[in-house]
Amino acid sequence: MIEDEAPIVRALERGFAAHGDLVVSADNGEDGIALAMDRTVDFVLLDISLPGRDGHQVLARIRAVRPEVPVLMLTARDDLENKVSALNAGADDYVTKPFAFEELLARMGALGRRAEPTGSQLEAGDLRVNLLSHRVWRGGKEIELSSREFALLEFLMRNPRQVLSRQQILSAVWDYAFDPGSNVLNVYVRYLRSKIDRSGEPSLISTVRGVGYRFDPPADSQSSS
Protein backbone atom coordinates (compact mmCIF):
# COMPACT_ATOMS: atom_id res chain seq x y z
CA MET A 1 0.00 0.00 0.00
CA ILE A 2 1.45 3.35 -1.10
CA GLU A 3 -0.61 6.00 0.69
CA ASP A 4 0.32 9.10 2.69
CA GLU A 5 -2.93 9.64 4.64
CA ALA A 6 -2.25 7.99 8.00
CA PRO A 7 -5.93 7.43 9.01
CA ILE A 8 -6.59 5.58 5.74
CA VAL A 9 -3.44 3.49 6.17
CA ARG A 10 -4.40 2.50 9.72
CA ALA A 11 -7.98 1.66 8.75
CA LEU A 12 -6.92 -0.47 5.78
CA GLU A 13 -4.20 -2.22 7.77
CA ARG A 14 -6.80 -3.24 10.36
CA GLY A 15 -9.19 -4.40 7.67
CA PHE A 16 -6.60 -6.45 5.81
CA ALA A 17 -5.26 -7.97 9.04
CA ALA A 18 -8.78 -9.12 9.92
CA HIS A 19 -9.05 -10.56 6.41
CA GLY A 20 -5.80 -12.50 6.88
CA ASP A 21 -3.64 -10.41 4.54
CA LEU A 22 -0.12 -9.17 5.26
CA VAL A 23 0.34 -5.49 4.37
CA VAL A 24 3.48 -3.42 3.94
CA SER A 25 3.09 0.31 3.39
CA ALA A 26 4.96 3.41 2.30
CA ASP A 27 3.91 7.05 2.62
CA ASN A 28 5.88 8.48 -0.32
CA GLY A 29 6.61 7.63 -3.92
CA GLU A 30 10.28 6.65 -3.60
CA ASP A 31 9.72 4.19 -0.75
CA GLY A 32 6.62 2.90 -2.52
CA ILE A 33 8.62 2.02 -5.62
CA ALA A 34 11.12 0.11 -3.49
CA LEU A 35 8.31 -1.88 -1.86
CA ALA A 36 6.57 -2.65 -5.15
CA MET A 37 9.78 -4.06 -6.65
CA ASP A 38 9.71 -6.88 -4.06
CA ARG A 39 8.41 -9.90 -5.97
CA THR A 40 6.74 -11.30 -2.85
CA VAL A 41 4.24 -8.43 -3.17
CA ASP A 42 1.10 -9.77 -4.89
CA PHE A 43 -0.95 -6.58 -5.17
CA VAL A 44 -0.37 -2.82 -5.08
CA LEU A 45 -2.77 -0.17 -3.76
CA LEU A 46 -1.47 3.17 -5.01
CA ASP A 47 -2.57 6.70 -4.13
CA ILE A 48 -2.20 9.37 -6.81
CA SER A 49 -1.33 12.34 -4.56
CA LEU A 50 1.97 11.42 -2.91
CA PRO A 51 5.00 13.31 -1.58
CA GLY A 52 7.98 13.15 -3.92
CA ARG A 53 7.03 11.11 -6.97
CA ASP A 54 3.29 11.15 -7.56
CA GLY A 55 1.19 8.07 -8.24
CA HIS A 56 1.50 8.31 -12.01
CA GLN A 57 5.31 8.36 -11.81
CA VAL A 58 5.29 5.46 -9.36
CA LEU A 59 2.94 3.51 -11.62
CA ALA A 60 5.19 4.06 -14.64
CA ARG A 61 8.14 2.66 -12.70
CA ILE A 62 6.15 -0.37 -11.50
CA ARG A 63 4.90 -1.14 -14.99
CA ALA A 64 8.43 -0.91 -16.43
CA VAL A 65 9.69 -3.63 -14.10
CA ARG A 66 6.62 -5.60 -12.96
CA PRO A 67 4.01 -5.46 -15.74
CA GLU A 68 2.19 -8.45 -14.26
CA VAL A 69 1.38 -7.16 -10.76
CA PRO A 70 -2.19 -5.84 -10.28
CA VAL A 71 -2.32 -2.13 -9.38
CA LEU A 72 -5.45 -0.44 -8.02
CA MET A 73 -5.36 3.35 -7.73
CA LEU A 74 -6.79 5.16 -4.68
CA THR A 75 -7.58 8.84 -4.99
CA ALA A 76 -9.87 11.63 -3.90
CA ARG A 77 -10.00 12.88 -7.47
CA ASP A 78 -13.20 11.71 -9.10
CA ASP A 79 -13.10 13.63 -12.37
CA LEU A 80 -13.08 11.69 -15.63
CA GLU A 81 -9.73 13.07 -16.80
CA ASN A 82 -7.85 11.65 -13.81
CA LYS A 83 -9.59 8.29 -14.08
CA VAL A 84 -8.75 7.97 -17.76
CA SER A 85 -5.19 9.13 -17.13
CA ALA A 86 -4.63 6.50 -14.43
CA LEU A 87 -6.08 3.68 -16.53
CA ASN A 88 -4.11 4.71 -19.61
CA ALA A 89 -0.94 4.79 -17.49
CA GLY A 90 -1.42 1.12 -16.66
CA ALA A 91 -3.65 0.97 -13.58
CA ASP A 92 -5.92 -2.08 -13.50
CA ASP A 93 -8.73 -0.34 -11.63
CA TYR A 94 -9.58 2.89 -9.85
CA VAL A 95 -11.40 3.58 -6.56
CA THR A 96 -12.42 7.06 -5.43
CA LYS A 97 -12.19 8.04 -1.76
CA PRO A 98 -14.20 7.57 0.37
CA PHE A 99 -14.90 3.93 -0.42
CA ALA A 100 -16.32 0.92 1.39
CA PHE A 101 -13.73 -1.65 2.44
CA GLU A 102 -15.97 -4.45 1.14
CA GLU A 103 -15.99 -2.88 -2.32
CA LEU A 104 -12.21 -2.54 -2.25
CA LEU A 105 -11.83 -6.23 -1.34
CA ALA A 106 -14.23 -7.24 -4.12
CA ARG A 107 -12.33 -5.23 -6.72
CA MET A 108 -9.00 -6.62 -5.51
CA GLY A 109 -10.39 -10.15 -5.65
CA ALA A 110 -11.55 -9.69 -9.22
CA LEU A 111 -8.16 -8.32 -10.30
CA GLY A 112 -6.32 -11.05 -8.42
CA ARG A 113 -8.30 -13.79 -10.16
CA ARG A 114 -7.56 -12.19 -13.50
CA ALA A 115 -3.83 -12.14 -12.73
CA GLU A 116 -3.52 -15.74 -11.54
CA PRO A 117 -1.27 -17.86 -13.76
CA THR A 118 -2.96 -20.65 -15.67
CA GLY A 119 -0.04 -23.03 -15.28
CA SER A 120 3.50 -23.53 -14.08
CA GLN A 121 5.27 -23.58 -17.44
CA LEU A 122 6.50 -21.20 -20.10
CA GLU A 123 6.86 -22.56 -23.63
CA ALA A 124 8.23 -21.23 -26.90
CA GLY A 125 8.44 -23.83 -29.64
CA ASP A 126 10.42 -26.72 -28.20
CA LEU A 127 11.86 -24.56 -25.38
CA ARG A 128 10.10 -25.41 -22.13
CA VAL A 129 10.57 -23.84 -18.69
CA ASN A 130 9.09 -25.27 -15.50
CA LEU A 131 8.64 -22.39 -13.05
CA LEU A 132 8.16 -24.62 -10.01
CA SER A 133 11.17 -26.91 -10.40
CA HIS A 134 13.37 -24.31 -12.17
CA ARG A 135 14.18 -26.81 -14.92
CA VAL A 136 14.59 -26.03 -18.62
CA TRP A 137 14.43 -28.24 -21.70
CA ARG A 138 14.89 -27.68 -25.41
CA GLY A 139 13.83 -30.42 -27.80
CA GLY A 140 13.48 -32.81 -24.85
CA LYS A 141 17.06 -32.25 -23.71
CA GLU A 142 17.45 -30.69 -20.28
CA ILE A 143 19.55 -27.53 -20.03
CA GLU A 144 21.41 -26.61 -16.85
CA LEU A 145 21.02 -22.93 -15.94
CA SER A 146 22.26 -20.92 -13.00
CA SER A 147 19.64 -19.16 -10.88
CA ARG A 148 20.45 -15.83 -12.53
CA GLU A 149 20.33 -17.30 -16.03
CA PHE A 150 16.96 -18.86 -15.20
CA ALA A 151 15.60 -15.53 -13.91
CA LEU A 152 16.80 -13.77 -17.05
CA LEU A 153 15.21 -16.37 -19.33
CA GLU A 154 11.94 -16.27 -17.39
CA PHE A 155 11.70 -12.48 -17.63
CA LEU A 156 12.43 -12.50 -21.37
CA MET A 157 9.90 -15.27 -22.04
CA ARG A 158 7.20 -13.49 -20.04
CA ASN A 159 7.59 -10.51 -22.37
CA PRO A 160 7.86 -12.08 -25.84
CA ARG A 161 8.54 -9.87 -28.86
CA GLN A 162 8.85 -6.81 -26.64
CA VAL A 163 11.94 -4.64 -26.73
CA LEU A 164 13.18 -4.56 -23.12
CA SER A 165 15.66 -1.91 -22.10
CA ARG A 166 18.83 -2.81 -20.27
CA GLN A 167 17.53 -0.98 -17.19
CA GLN A 168 14.23 -2.87 -17.25
CA ILE A 169 16.04 -6.20 -17.36
CA LEU A 170 18.61 -5.28 -14.72
CA SER A 171 15.92 -4.01 -12.35
CA ALA A 172 13.75 -7.09 -12.86
CA VAL A 173 16.45 -9.77 -12.69
CA TRP A 174 19.04 -8.21 -10.41
CA ASP A 175 16.61 -6.06 -8.35
CA TYR A 176 18.89 -3.02 -8.37
CA ALA A 177 20.62 -0.70 -10.80
CA PHE A 178 24.12 -1.48 -11.99
CA ASP A 179 26.71 1.03 -13.09
CA PRO A 180 25.68 2.02 -16.64
CA GLY A 181 29.13 0.93 -17.78
CA SER A 182 28.73 -2.59 -16.39
CA ASN A 183 28.67 -5.42 -18.93
CA VAL A 184 27.05 -7.96 -16.59
CA LEU A 185 23.88 -8.17 -18.70
CA ASN A 186 25.84 -8.70 -21.92
CA VAL A 187 27.75 -11.51 -20.24
CA TYR A 188 24.63 -13.31 -19.02
CA VAL A 189 22.86 -12.94 -22.36
CA ARG A 190 25.90 -14.54 -23.98
CA TYR A 191 25.85 -17.39 -21.44
CA LEU A 192 22.11 -17.91 -22.03
CA ARG A 193 22.41 -17.89 -25.81
CA SER A 194 25.18 -20.47 -25.68
CA LYS A 195 22.85 -22.82 -23.79
CA ILE A 196 19.42 -22.36 -25.39
CA ASP A 197 20.23 -21.52 -29.03
CA ARG A 198 20.79 -24.09 -31.75
CA SER A 199 23.71 -24.00 -34.15
CA GLY A 200 22.73 -22.64 -37.54
CA GLU A 201 19.42 -21.18 -36.33
CA PRO A 202 18.58 -17.57 -35.39
CA SER A 203 19.07 -16.74 -31.73
CA LEU A 204 15.97 -16.65 -29.56
CA ILE A 205 17.36 -13.48 -27.97
CA SER A 206 17.82 -10.53 -30.32
CA THR A 207 20.00 -7.53 -29.55
CA VAL A 208 18.30 -4.18 -30.16
CA ARG A 209 21.28 -1.88 -30.47
CA GLY A 210 21.24 1.14 -28.23
CA VAL A 211 18.19 -0.14 -26.32
CA GLY A 212 18.38 -3.69 -24.97
CA TYR A 213 17.09 -7.14 -25.92
CA ARG A 214 14.01 -8.91 -27.27
CA PHE A 215 12.90 -12.54 -26.91
CA ASP A 216 11.79 -13.90 -30.31
CA PRO A 217 9.89 -17.20 -30.08
CA PRO A 218 9.84 -19.35 -33.21
CA ALA A 219 7.33 -17.96 -35.72
CA ASP A 220 4.92 -20.89 -35.21
CA SER A 221 4.86 -20.73 -31.41
CA GLN A 222 3.71 -18.51 -28.54
CA SER A 223 5.16 -18.03 -25.07
CA SER A 224 2.58 -18.93 -22.44
CA SER A 225 2.26 -19.55 -18.72
Descriptors:
225 residues, alpha+beta
Give a brief rundown of this model.
With 225 residues, the protein is α+β, with helices and mostly antiparallel strands. It has helices spanning 6-19, 29-36, 55-65, 80-88, 101-115, 147-158, 166-174, 184-196; strands at 44-47, 71-75, 93-96, 121-124, 127-130, 135-138, 141-143, 164-165, 205-208, 212-215.
Please describe what this structure looks like.
This protein is α+β, with helices and mostly antiparallel strands and 225 residues long. Helices cover 40% and strands 17% of the residues. The protein has eight helices and ten strands. The protein has helices at residues 6-19, 29-36, 55-65, 80-88, 101-115, 147-158, 166-174, 184-196; strands at residues 44-47, 71-75, 93-96, 121-124, 127-130, 135-138, 141-143, 164-165, 205-208, 212-215. The strands form three sheets. It has a four-stranded antiparallel sheet with strand order 4-5-6-7, with helices on one face. The chain has a three-stranded parallel sheet with strand order 1-2-3, sandwiched between helices. Helix 2 (29-36) runs parallel beside helix 3, helix 6 (147-158) crosses helix 7 and helix 6 crosses helix 8 (184-196). The longest helix is centred in the middle third of the chain and has 15 residues, at 101-115. The radius of gyration is 20 Å and the shape is elongated. It starts with 5 loop residues before the first helix and ends in a 10-residue tail after the last strand.
